[in-house]
Design goal:
Length: about 210
């Protein structure tokens, strides 16, 4: 009982100090196993998605006290930045809608990352949904991190995305050509929520053992 109590207290203190019970992801274009707290797996064998470098494998999410982290992994790395064989613009566009609620009914932010030939990051833009309209959010270089390689990773400062908590996320990988676009969606709990769920499970287990 005493060990469990000390463990719970220590974990709670860690959450209060860091906002997360694990190290934050490194935005380097490479997603390591279990690097992100939440991973949404995409369906396999989707019709029309014939480019493995544009076929979504997972949408990853994590956060710490300062940043929201997102990553997209593909079935056949590396991430194809130039839109694939059918793209006239030779660009790939990843746009991700974050909803303010876990039911996916209230849009909050639209994050767009446009890449081009040779792994070029062409733009990172953020819009906020206000009164039925998407309004651009100004992003200075210090407000985001982005990298592309075997995966696409982007981090946005929490000061720029203050209205989401445990959001529903919808992501679409647009090949900017005639081939089918790939999509993935689901709820991405923040790490603090996941850790608190873990604390609750540990407390329940300790209570069960006492009975």
């Amino acid at each position: 009982m005493r060990i469990c109590t000390l463990w719970l207290a220590g974990a709670a203190a860690l959450l209060m100090a860091t906002g997360s019970a694990w190290a934050a992801p490194i935005v380097d274009g490479i997603v390591l196993p279990a690097e992100y707290a939440t991973s949404l797996a995409d369906a396999t064998g989707e019709p029309g998605v014939d480019n493995p470098g544009l076929d979504i494998n997972t949408l990853e999410y994590d956060s710490d006290a300062s940043w929201h982290y997102f990553a997209l992994t593909v079935v056949g790395p590396p991430y194809d930045t130039d839109g694939g064989a059918t793209s006239r613009r030779r660009q790939t566009d990843l746009w991700t809608i974050m909803y303010a609620d876990s039911a996916g009914t209230t849009p909050a932010y639209l994050l767009d990352v446009l890449t081009g030939t040779g792994g070029t990051i062409l733009s990172v833009t953020l819009d906020q949904y206000v009164g039925g309209t998407w309004v651009p959010v100004a992003l200075a270089p210090a407000d985001f991190q982005v990298s592309v390689g075997t995966a696409l990773e982007v981090a946005i400062a929490k000061t720029k995305m203050a209205l989401i908590s445990n959001p529903y996320v919808f992501g679409q990988l647009d090949d900017t050509g005639s081939a089918a676009d790939d999509q993935v969606e689901g709820v991405v709990p923040e790490p603090a929520t996941l850790a608190l769920l873990g604390l609750g499970a540990a407390a329940a287990l300790a209570s069960r053992r006492r009975k």
